[in-house]
Amino acid sequence: MSTERLFLITAPTGNTGAPTVKFLLEGGHRVRAFVHRIDHRSAALADLGAEIVEGDLLDFRAVSSAMAGVDAAYFCYPIAPGTLLPATTIFAQAAGEAGVDAVVNMSQISARREAKSNAAQQHWLAERLLDRATFKTIHLRPTFFAEWLKWQWQRDDNEGVLRLPFGDGRHAPISGTDQAAVIAAVLRNPAPHDRQIYPLVGARELDHYGIAAEMADTLGIPVRYQPVGIAEFAIGLVAAGFPDFFVQHISSVAQDYRDGIFSGENNLVEVISGHQPMTVADYVNANRAEFDHDGRFVQRGQLKAS
């Protein structure tokens, strides 16, 4: 049976949005999923019990309409040139007019005033914009997602390869599901978290050699980390058709990663959500089939070792 509270979830078919919808519905709450287009993914959310609203986050009328009656909202916007700040402005104005109590904002761990990544700097600016609103605001700054492991995974016969430009840097990969548990918990009870910035990390900090070793133990095959240069990786992204804005972002955060910006451990996931985050082994085991083939963004034949 649904409660009277209604939550608006943007990017509801993504790595954090989809499990957030699921967690809230399982808790008996009403969920309005704001989708860019109606497709099989939105149909799956509707089957779970979510209300589906189609629209564009750059369309003030659509966002304002979707905010009607909403208690708290999750704002998640993709890496795209020149549109995050307009979308944030629209979302903030619509939320304020609708009397929304709280907005949980998905940012990134590299967001800061001096960020070299244009996307990361814009996330920092978006945070500051939301902080000026009268509703409660909570910013989440995750390190690299555990999902990166399957996106850049190369499967060579009975061996796995991670070719990435991260040098000897370290981080604690965090799954979208663990982030969703935090998002759902904060949406349900935002008051203790107002104006907080939470760096979200997974269970254990590792370098990519350690990540490869843990993946190998889980999958039962050899797994190698093959570091590549940042410039070489960027060339591969361009050759694969990625837009310049994204390439500039990845190149900049790769250097941030090497400089330790993505590192660190904490217990925020456990404290806020009530459960411990997945380890690398947990994530790989839960997504084992994804490692039987190349990841969707692998740059096969386009990179050389640094």
TrEMBL record:
Question: Which stretches make up the NAD(P)-binding domain?
Answer: 13-190
InterPro entries in the record, alphabetically? Ergot_Alk_Oxidoreductase, NAD(P)-bd_dom, NAD(P)-bd_dom_sf
Q: Gene3D superfamilies, alphabetically?
A: NAD(P)-binding Rossmann-like Domain (3.40.50.720), UDP-galactose 4-epimerase, domain 1 (3.90.25.10)
Q: What is this protein called?
A: Nucleotide-diphosphate-sugar epimerase
Species: Mycobacterium montefiorense
